[in-house]
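Q: Entry one of two.
A:
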Amino acid sequence: MPIRLILGASRGIGHELARQYAAQGDRVLATYRHEADGPGLAALGVEALRVDLLQDDCEAVLAGALKGALVDTALIVAGVGGPQASEVIAPTREEFDAVMRTNVFVSMRLIPFLAAGRLARGAKLAVLSSRMGSIGGASSASWWLYRASKAALNSVLKSASLALASQDIVCLSLHPGWVRTDMGGAGADLGVEESAASLLRVVAATNRSHNGRFLNYNGEQLEW
C-alpha cells in the first residue's frame, strides 16, 4: 500500500489531497495544527497527526508515526498568505517572520528530515508553491512578501532536486491554480476538489525526467 504524507492538511487543498488519497485506498498520514481540526481529518480515514511544523518536536512526532516506514509521496502544503498590499509597502518584522518561516523554513527543515532515509526510492517530494513565485512570469507587485516567499521556496526545491537526484527522488514545485480557499477567495477559478485531483494526477504522472521542475496543476511547465 502506498504511503502518502501530507504536511499541512487542516483545511483547504491539503485536507482535500488527504481525502482523495485515502479514498483511493492509500495509507495517508496528514498533519494538522489546531485541536479542532483533528476530528474532521481523522474522519477521512487518514492517520491525523497533531503537530506544529514550526516547533522543535515536529520531526520526532513524524518519525514516531512513520515507525521506519518509507514514504512514497510527500507533499509539503503548509503556507500562509501574509499582507495583501497592492503596492510595494514594507512588511513588519512580525509579518515577514510569519510568512517566511511558514512558507520557506518549514520546507528547508522537513526536506532534509525526509531525505534522511524516510523516502522510498523513486518517491515524489513536492512543495505547494504558487505561480506568484515565478520571477520570470511576474506581472504585478501585489502580495510582494508572499511572492518573495514562494520564489524562495522554488529555490529551495530546485536545490533539493539536485541534492536528492542520486537517491532517485523526484522533487517538484507545484502551482495549484487559483483556488476557492480562505486565501484564494470565493471568486477564484477552481474548486478545491478539482485542484487537488489535478495535482494528484500531475504527481502520479511524473518521473525522473521531471525532477526539479515547476509545474502547473494541469501539468504545464512554469517559468522560474
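Q: Entry two of two.
A:
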Amino acid sequence: MKSNFLDEIVRVQKQGQPRGIASVCSAHPWVLKAAMTGAKTGTRPLLVESTCNQVNQFGGYTGMTPTDFVAYVRAVAVENQFPLERLILGGDHLGPNVWQNEPAGSAMQKSAGMLRAYVQAGYTKIHLDASMKLGDDDPGRPLDLELSARRTAWLALAAESASADLSPEGSDKLRYIIGSEVPIPGGAMGHEDGVHVTDVPDARRSLAVMQAAFKSEGLESAWERVIALVVQPGVEFGDDFILEYHSGAARHLAHFAETIPFVYEVHSTDFQTRTHLRDLVRDHFAILKVGPALTFAFREAVFALAMMEDELFLPEARSNLIGVMDEAMTRQPEYWQNYYHGNAAALRRRRMFSRSDRIRYYWSDGRVQSALDHLLQNLREKTLPPVLLSQFLPEQFEKVRNHQLDAMPDALILDKINSVLEDYAFACG
C-alpha cells in the first residue's frame, strides 16, 4: 500500500507527535480561494470535502455532481496557482442520509451509486456513514450496530469496485473514515447544554463489529486503509451556543486512541479557540472538520463592508446587500426555518448573524450575487477611511496600519477567512 499524507498523520500521531489536518467542508468560492492562497506557499496538502446532501449523483443542493465539484475545486486551484498534486478531496457522510425516508433497498442502491460517482470523480478520502434508520427499519428501536456495519461494508464494497474499474491499483488510493458520533449534516438544530462524549466501550465494540463486517465481505485490504473513527469528544455549536473542548472529559478516548491503529475525526469543530483546537490534535483528534465558521467569517467581513458602504455612498448608489440577503432568506425559508425560532425581530437577527450560519445557503442566489458584486465594485473605487476600518474590521485595520494588508475589499474578506484557517494551521502543527 503506497503511503500518502493522511497515512503520515496517523504514523506521527502514533509516535507521539501532535500533528493533524483541517478539513475544509465548503463549496463557497471565497472560502476555497482563501484556503488555497493561504496554503499556497507551504508544502502541506489542502483537504477539501463535500457532503452527501451538498454533492451527489443527482446534483445535491449545490446542483453539482461529484465530477462537477472536482472540476470546480480544481478550477479554483488553477486560478489561484495552488498545486493540484497537493489537493485532497474528501466525501463526508457518504451513505443513505439523503434517502433515509426510502425503503432500505432503494436507499442503499442510491448510496452505492453515490459512492461510485465520488470515487470515479477522484475523491480519495471517504467517510462511510450508514448510521441512520431507513424507511422500512423498525421505527421503535435504535438501528442495530451489526446492520449499520453490514451496510457500511456494502458501501465500501461499492467504492472498492468503482476504484478498481479505474485501474488495477485504484483502490490503493482510497482512505476510509468510519463511524458517525455526530449530529445530522448541517449542525445542531437547537440549543444544547452538553453532548455525550463517546464511551470507550462503545468505540471498541463499533470497531470490532465494523472490522467483522468488512471481513465478511472480503474487504480485509480495505480495512487496512481505514485511518480514522468519527467520535464525539464533547464539541458542538449552534445558533446561540458553543460547547468548548475540555480535555479531561475526553481523556479515556485519548488513551484508547493510543491502543488502536487509527486516529479520530471530529465534526463541528467550528468556533473552538485555537488552544482548544491544539488540545484536540494533541489528544489524537487529528482530522478537524470546519465549514460554517469559515462562511461565518466571510459574512462578517461582507456585512462590515456593507456598513462602511452605507457611510460612504448615497442611498440610491448603495448595494443594500444586507436587505437583499434578508429578502432572499424570507422568500425561500427552507434552509433556516427549522433552525431559528422567535418573534420577527429575533428571526431576522438569527437569519443575519447566527453561528449556525444558515445564511451560507443563500450566497449563490442571483440577486444576492448581484448585490455583492455591486458592493465590491463600489468599494474598489473608494479609499476606505482608517476610522471606518477601525470601527468595522479592527483586526484587519491593525494589519493595514502595519503594512501587512492592503485596504482593498477583496483582501479584507480573504484575511478575515484566513484568520480562522490560521487557528487550524496552528493547531495542526
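A: Comment on entry two: Residues 145-166 form the longest helix (22 residues). DSSP finds 16 helices and ten strands in the chain.
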